[in-house]
Design a protein that fits this description.
Elements (H helix, E strand, L loop, with lengths): L2 H17 L1 H21 L3 H12 L5 H14 L7 H15 L3 E5 L5 H9 L5 E6 L2 H13 L7 E5 L2 H4 L3 H4 L7 E4 L6 H10 L8 E4 L2 H5 L1 H9 L3 E10 L2 E13 L4
Parallel strand pairs: 1-2, 1-4, 2-3, 4-5
Antiparallel strand pairs: 5-7, 6-7
Helix pairs in contact: 3-4, 3-7, 4-6, 5-6, 10-12
């Protein structure tokens, strides 16, 4: 390419960099820097975050552990977690609904798991599902460090599409009063229909879905709005540390099989 042609494209490149600068920063923090640190340390970012929590957070205090993770994400390495803004929405809804049994698909490092667990009513139970064994090992340690035993929070390692059909028989979950979808947006619709098909959603159940705007779950939202079995509401937020990147949590209320 000649210098003249390269210069002709320069204004376009500058315009794109300015317009999408937040996305470029996110890409650098979540992919490039993370991959480099993984190679240099031999540890995953979640494992490094847990080491930080061990030395800076108060055991048995889930609120302090959550604050420590937020500090790590803002000042050390971007965690790609739910963050405090969405976390307040999640805790408020859990407290309002007071579910006797809750299900989380996508434990990740355990951040949203702690939010749900600390907002459960007395005697409430949370089952949380994580497909990656190494990530699940970190989350398990974080959950126990926060003071929640297996009677309150049970972590299941496996693929959601394989675990959901076994929830009733193997894990004694006959109904999920509240569900958080926080794993892969492209799997939200499939797993919602699996929960319906196995009669795990009672009438009035609340289904919450994170990241429905970024990276987005359009088929899931279209189904929820058009099938006639849900009342839908969208809570608009931004990504943690990237408020200019708009995201949201979808809140569905299940009316029953119809």
């Amino acid at each position: 390419m000649s210098p003249a042609i390269a210069l002709a494209f320069l204004p376009l490149v500058v315009t794109l960099l300015v317009r999408y600068r937040h996305y470029f920063r996110l890409l650098v923090r979540t992919v490039l820097l993370r991959s480099l640190r993984d190679c240099l340390s031999g540890l995953r970012m979640e494992e490094r975050a847990f080491s930080y929590v061990l030395t800076h957070a108060l055991p048995g205090d889930p609120g302090h552990i959550l604050t420590t993770l937020d500090h790590w994400s803002s000042h050390c390495e971007y965690l790609s977690h739910m963050g405090p803004a969405k976390g307040q929405i999640l805790m408020r809804l859990v407290e309002e609904k007071a579910p006797a049994s809750a299900l989380e698909l996508g434990t990740y490092c355990g951040y949203s798991t702690l939010l749900i667990a600390r907002a459960l009513p007395p005697g409430g139970r949370l089952l949380t599902v994580e497909r990656d064994p190494r990530t699940a090992a970190v989350a398990e340690k974080l959950i126990r460090l926060a003071g929640f035993d297996e009677h309150t929070v049970e972590l299941i390692v496996g693929r959601s599409e394989e675990v959901i059909p076994r929830l009733r028989t193997q894990y004694q979950l006959s109904r999920a009063d509240l569900v958080l979808l926080a794993h892969w947006p492209r799997c939200y619709l499939r797993d919602l229909q699996l929960l319906e098909g196995h009669a795990l959603l009672p009438a009035g159940a609340t289904v919450l879905a994170d990241h429905v705007l970024f990276p987005g779950a359009p088929r899931f939202l279209q189904y929820a709005k058009s099938c006639g079995r849900y009342r839908c509401r969208l809570h608009h937020t931004g990504l943690p540390d990237f408020p200019a990147i708009k995201d949201g949590i979808a809140q569905l209320t299940y009316a029953g099989p119809g």
